Structure prediction request, 232 residues.
Amino acid sequence: MKKITTFLLLALIVSFTSCSSDDEIQEKELATVTEEFQEKVNQMDLPSALESSENTYAQEASYQFNAVKNLGQSFSAFLTVPSNASSSRPERSGKGTYVSGSKTYTWSSDGITVKYTITETSDRYTFSYYVESSDFTGKLISGYQLKDGSCAEFSMYNENSVVATFKFWVNGDSIKAEMISENQKIYLETNTSTKEGTIKVYESDSLTAKYIWNANGTGSYTNHETNETFTW
Prediction:
């Protein structure tokens, strides 16, 4: 619970303080990359008949779809520098030289201090969050987004171990997303034009459930543990 609480507080810090900052990192270019990715994620949608369905399995598919979409929509917040942040250039360990293309931003709110480091390379922006609070101190989030907007990934940590990973792939109208937490993996594929899609749920690498829906909102749920299929 402490880990989850700290994550939510961090998300609040980012959302309430974020705006453009004048700094050496090419934030205008970064904002463009984030905007293009965000635009694609915002286009993810379900057929209206599926969203309004009272079928239990259709509702489960809708819930998991929207959980994935919400993660994608909030991803760009983690690449935004708050206006109240101070900045510095991180040094290479023991070498007395600065890390090229990298900046560390620091800000505090509600008893939480965040140190956010972002590095620009030829094809991507990588970032990490180090948090100091009464509930949690240590590395909390790290990730990257490719400059062409085709892929974005971030991981959450607890005691320096990865506890959850979220990844998105964008290719034209096709969007794929993967969420891994402990022994569970949720894999989503959807088309922003047709609104068709598939969700697969894995437990310990074994497929346990699959949801498939069509452009008209009809679909099916398959329980791969009992080999039963239900339609809506």
